[in-house]
Specification:
Layout lengths: L6 E6 L7 H5 L4 E4 L5 H10 L4 E5 H4 L4 H4 L8 E5 L2
Parallel strand pairs: 1-2, 1-3, 3-4
Length: 83
């Protein structure tokens, strides 16, 4: 049995610390220029059918919807990377 997961990591474009390993391994890391667009980017990734979205701690502060809207969704997991 094969389980397919679609995972993406999201960080600030100027962030040089988070998700470096994932970038070096060639995994998908999306970068956000405007910190006020975090909720828009999350919605876009959900529309692209990502199962798991790992977001840097810094970006999580700029999202109004992480807890309020996505906490109870069963089709997507949003993980905040506390580093």
């Amino acid at each position: 049995m094969v389980i397919k997961m679609k995972i993406v990591w999201v960080k600030n474009q100027n962030d040089e610390k988070n998700f470096r390993l994932q970038e070096n391994m060639g995994w998908e890391v999306r970068k956000i220029q405007d910190l006020e667009e975090v909720d828009q980017k999350l919605e876009e990734l959900i529309q692209e059918k990502y199962d798991t979205i790992v977001i840097s701690n810094e970006l999580s502060y700029f999202s109004e919807n992480i807890i309020r809207k996505y906490q109870k969704k069963d089709d997507v997991n949003i993980i905040i990377n506390f580093r």
